[in-house]
């Protein structure tokens, strides 16, 4: 992504002073040189903060105490974007942002109101970077946060080389010392390198969903198949039971075609009787009497339910009547004051409310209030006593309920007498009950039998999902993705080797190409014995910083060759010369920066190689990136190097935060 830093802006807390602007060239090596404690190392945390960091690493005290907002102007193609963020409160980052995008941005002299939040800014930057809008985990489970949607925040690892990283033998990328950032960058690295695209990621996510569905359906299918082995004997047993109940007259055997057995089962369900159809030759007259009693019992049960419902309705009406009367009485009580006002108004010429005598219509208005009161009182009086109609209806229904319950008790006594009298009737009674239980069970089982006989809907679902999975599988060819990722890292390693030719490393590291390990997010080098070793096993900080410089240059060149890379095209190095110029000269008990002009030794030339290497990257055919270097080294080292632009020199009282902001009287 062709995103570079145009300006860094800091708004003072005291609006008397204008904002502090630090301007950068887009296609140059921008250098801010200066003494210690001038604010150079605060630039990376400020830019990171403005780009939506969830934490704030900006140094406390002066750089926070006298500042109201921090801002950055990004150059994105032909557009400029101003992103400003309010100074944090204590240790809590602010969620107040000011966001503006246009062909040209004018810096407001004062910022007061926000127009965006952290999520708004990150969402806008994610869209500009054309990042995937989905995660790699379809369920988006919290424990898989490293598979969450790739954010512009995750790409900051490629653009910031802070003091503790630029010469670090263990960490190559910004913030990857934290497990979450490390795992997420590792997970998304194939996409970042172009080994995967949006089509592949969508296919991979869909395949994960399909795998889970297929596993679940296959487990269900195995259960169904286990059941299907016994389905034929089961349905045959059901039909034989139906014969015993006199429900099926057809002749059949267990060897019959499954379709015929199923057809008999469907026919049985379709013409199953509402009442037992029992012939005179099968049972005695007492059994017919039981059937009549059964029907009568159903009618009584229905009648009981109707009476109970009616009783509930009467009770609800009584409660509603009482509640409404209570509300009406309360309204009348609240307006009781108007009577008193009327009496007072009739006895005096002054207004009883304000005491003035210039209100001739006061009595008329108060009479209107009294009229309203009377309406509420009349309404409330209607509901003071519940009408006797409700009580009469309630008593009648209770009496009806008692009568019906007595009838049902009497019916139950006749049941008991008949069953005791006739053993055959009792047997037939229970047989009828069992028959209906059987029919209910058979009805619920028939649907499963039908699905099993017709081939099973689960098999069809499994086949459809498997077909879709097989169509997606060629897109997510893990071997092909791995080959593309290896090709990308090999290309980056080749570029690194070309940059190492001009940096201060041991000669053997200029002869053998290093390896970029995206699983470990590390650089490996080949030892004398031919084995690969991590950079942590290599001695000398000068080697470490050289590998970091070469890696960042190689990554930027590689990303520039990709169509539509999402990585911003700038890198900020904070004090890469620290391993060469750590010492100072003591003058009269104080500290003074070493005079780089007096250096004509290996360290001087080693630092100069860093600036030359960065400068020479702009001679590449597709060069479209920006470097910013924050360092103690000055023009004595980089002054004669092409493509190096000195942004500012912070010495002799000149700093990131102007002294007048905090020294005013």
TrEMBL record:
Sorted alphabetically, the keyword list is: Coiled coil
Residue ranges that the Swiss-Prot or TrEMBL entry lists as coiled coil? 200-234, 359-421
Q: Which InterPro entries match?
A: DUF3732, P-loop_NTPase
**Gene3D superfamilies associated with the record:** P-loop containing nucleotide triphosphate hydrolases
* Full protein name: DUF3732 domain-containing protein
């Amino acid at each position: 992504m062709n995103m570079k830093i145009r300006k860094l802006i800091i708004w003072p807390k005291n609006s008397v002073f204008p904002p502090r602007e630090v301007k950068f060239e887009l296609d140059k090596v921008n250098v801010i040189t200066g003494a210690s404690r001038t604010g150079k190392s605060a630039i990376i945390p400020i830019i990171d903060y403005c780009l939506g960091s969830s934490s704030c690493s900006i140094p406390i005290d002066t750089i926070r105490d006298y500042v109201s907002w921090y801002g950055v102007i990004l150059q994105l193609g032909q557009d400029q974007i101003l992103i400003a963020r309010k100074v944090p409160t204590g240790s809590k980052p602010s969620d107040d942002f000011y966001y503006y995008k246009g062909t040209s941005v004018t810096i407001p002299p004062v910022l007061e109101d926000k127009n965006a939040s952290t999520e708004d800014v990150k969402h806008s930057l994610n869209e500009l970077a054309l990042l995937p809008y989905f995660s790699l985990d379809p369920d988006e489970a919290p424990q898989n946060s490293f598979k969450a949607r790739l954010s512009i925040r995750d790409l900051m690892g490629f653009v910031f080389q802070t003091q503790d990283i630029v010469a670090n033998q263990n960490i190559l990328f910004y913030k990857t010392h934290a497990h979450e950032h490390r795992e997420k960058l590792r997970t998304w690295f194939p996409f970042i390198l172009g080994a995967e695209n949006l089509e592949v990621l969508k296919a991979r996510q869909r395949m994960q969903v399909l795998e889970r569905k297929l596993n679940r359906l296959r487990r269900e299918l195995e259960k169904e198949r286990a059941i299907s082995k016994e389905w034929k004997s089961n349905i045959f047993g059901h039909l034989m039971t139906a014969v015993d109940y006199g429900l099926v007259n057809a002749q059949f055997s267990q060897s019959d075609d499954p379709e015929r057995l199923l057809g008999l089962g469907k026919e049985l369900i379709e013409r199953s009787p509402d009442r037992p159809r029992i012939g005179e030759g099968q049972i005695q007259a007492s059994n017919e009497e039981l059937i009549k009693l059964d029907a009568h019992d159903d009618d009584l049960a229905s009648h009981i339910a109707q009476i109970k419902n009616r009783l509930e309705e009467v009770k609800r009406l009584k409660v509603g009547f009482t509640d409404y009367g209570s509300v009406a009485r309360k309204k009348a009580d609240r307006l009781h004051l108007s009577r008193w006002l009327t009496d007072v108004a009739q006895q005096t010429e002054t207004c009883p409310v304000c005491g003035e005598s210039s209100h001739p219509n006061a009595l008329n208005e108060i009479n209107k209030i009294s009229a309203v009161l009377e309406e509420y009182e009349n309404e409330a009086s209607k509901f003071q006593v519940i009408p006797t109609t409700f009580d009469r209806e309630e008593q009648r229904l209770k009496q009806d309920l008692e009568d019906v319950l007595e009838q049902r008790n009497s019916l139950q006594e006749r049941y008991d007498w008949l069953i005791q009298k006739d053993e055959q009737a009792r047997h037939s009674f229970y047989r009828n009950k069992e028959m209906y239980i059987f029919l209910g069970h058979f009805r619920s089982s028939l649907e499963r039998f039908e699905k099993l006989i017709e081939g099973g809907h689960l098999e069809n679902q499994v086949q459809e999902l498997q077909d879709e999975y097989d169509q997606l599988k060629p897109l997510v060819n893990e071997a092909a993705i791995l080959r593309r990722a290896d090709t990308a890292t090999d290309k980056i390693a080749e570029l690194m080797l070309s940059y190492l030719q001009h940096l201060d490393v041991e000669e053997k590291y200029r002869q053998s190409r290093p390896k970029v390990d995206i699983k470990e997010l590390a650089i490996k080098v080949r030892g004398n014995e031919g084995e690969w070793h991590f950079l942590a096993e290599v001695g000398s900080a000068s080697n470490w910083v050289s590998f970091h410089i070469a890696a960042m240059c190689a990554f930027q060149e590689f990303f520039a060759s990709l169509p539509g890379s999402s990585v911003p095209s700038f890198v900020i190095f904070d004090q890469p010369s620290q391993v060469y110029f750590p010492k100072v000269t003591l003058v009269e008990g104080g500290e003074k920066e070493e005079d780089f002009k007096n250096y004509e030794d290996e360290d001087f030339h080693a630092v100069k190689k860093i600036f030359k290497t960065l400068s020479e990257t702009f001679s590449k055919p597709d060069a479209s990136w920006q470097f910013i270097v924050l360092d103690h080294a000055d023009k004595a080292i980089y002054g004669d190097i092409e493509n190096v632009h000195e942004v500012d020199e912070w010495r002799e009282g000149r700093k990131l935060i102007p002294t007048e902001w905090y020294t005013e009287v």
